[in-house]
Amino acid sequence: MVINSTSPMVVVANRLPFTVQKNPVTGQMERKHCAGGLVTAVAPVVVETEGLWVGWSGQHQEDGVVEIPEANPNDQSPTAGLKSWQVKPMMSQKTLFDNYYNGCCNATFWPLFHSMPDRAIFQQDKWEAYREVNEQFAKLTVEAVQSLSKSNPETIPLVWLHDYHLMMAANSIRDRCDKLGLPIKMAFFLHIPFPSWDIMRLFPWDDELLQGILGCDSVGFHVEDYCLNFIDCCQRRLGCRVDREQMLVEHNGRTVSVHPLPISIPYDRFVSLAEKAPQVVKNNEQEQLLLGVDRLDYTKGLVHRIRAFETLLQKHPEHIEHVTFLQVAVPSRTDVKEYQELKEDLDQLIGRINGRFSTPNWSPIRYIYGCVSQEQLAAFYRDSSVAVVTPLRDGMNLVAKEFVACQVSEPGVLMLSPFAGAGSSMHEALLVNPYETDEFAEVMHRALTMPKDERELRMKQLRHREREHDVNFWLQSFLKSVDCLADNNLTPGRLLPL
Ligand code: ADQ
Fold this sequence. Notes:
This protein has 15 helices and 17 strands. It is of the alpha/beta class. Adenosine-5'-diphosphate-glucose (ADQ) binds next to strand 12, strand 13 and helix 12. GO terms for molecular function: alpha,alpha-trehalose-phosphate synthase (UDP-forming) activity; trehalose-phosphatase activity.
């Protein structure tokens, strides 16, 4: 990987890039790698620029001090090169952290930003906990920056804040660094959608939140629509002067640049996994698989999708015994009531449909509730005829891209919701509105019966685009966006013309 950045990168994310666990046999603390696009892409940059990663370790202050162990000598993961001094665990009091994480991040921002305001709670104490934990993150980040600047006073660290957990940290980081005379560049990237002004204004403290994000020099979202929503909110709520063409927002005498930076996957890695993965066992040679892979989350539209599959079997009984829906769902936020209810609804729905349509030799739905290895996932992607990626709302959606990368033999068909960020660039997918059940079933039928030459053509173009715009491309685009614009903010004056 070529990294065009000389600044040490300080990544600040809710989570560390690995968890720390006690080995039950040796009693020693060990790193447990968390697979994920962000860690795979960003950890090598932190290693190479001798930067730092600030995040929650999974423990609380009540649990005592966490010592970060060095990587195991056999560690092959992208975080293996991170020395223990480069990992800064954030620890908070348990109740405070719970109000921040479960209370505000997941019960307010997650549903609100996915345009599901009826599911969101708006509580002052949760919001205060959010601000306080962001302040704790800010304090630790500045200590980290200080330690870097001591050992290398020539460089200007690049602080990169990630996601909806950390929208209120930037101004505190900036103020503290200013007082210490520490120059920094600061960027923010949001992994979920940024909603329209109509939704954002429902949040009682929207002005503070927007000002929080504007504390950065550069702000990134997956797609242009989210950028424009953000710019719109800044103009309408804060009265900022904005330039929509160049995507600039003026605030407090500084100009903040806004960038569409569509995240992606390590494309080549998925290709080679798919080339090696073992064959998926099917009922018979002709059986076609429809595939869904998601975290079990209400934004992912699992219930809508399974209902559409039921309609397919009802309206096109020729698929009975020839088509199976394979749904893989990773448990997520299992201690939250809404997620437990979603699991129950899905269990019941799948049970009912299997009861209704199963024959002695076939059941319509195979359902895996759990995590599967990337090798297994690659096999599912490769051997499925259709991937059904139909969230009700999704920042980007990496599953759509992983499926495309794994199409190394017989080309399959991608069905995609226009409400996922991926929908705005993967034009050759069959777009389907997950709320429109009958049409959804018809598009499933079309995908299952699509002629080979059409499948080939669509998949070829999808694969070409994703190969060119992989996760490395995303990272390089981000570094470029920071290099061109943040320097101007260090020498104030790049304000919008009056
Ligand atoms: P997520 O909501 O987690 O990410 P997504 O982008 O689809 O959604 O990523 C899910 C990841 O989990 C994929 O890499 C997938 O392979 C993996 N996965 C899913 N099910 C699995 C299973 N059963 N076993 C193992 N792995 C599984 C958030 C936003 C997205 C945005 C990403 C990145 O909500 O919109 O695309 O961040 O910015």
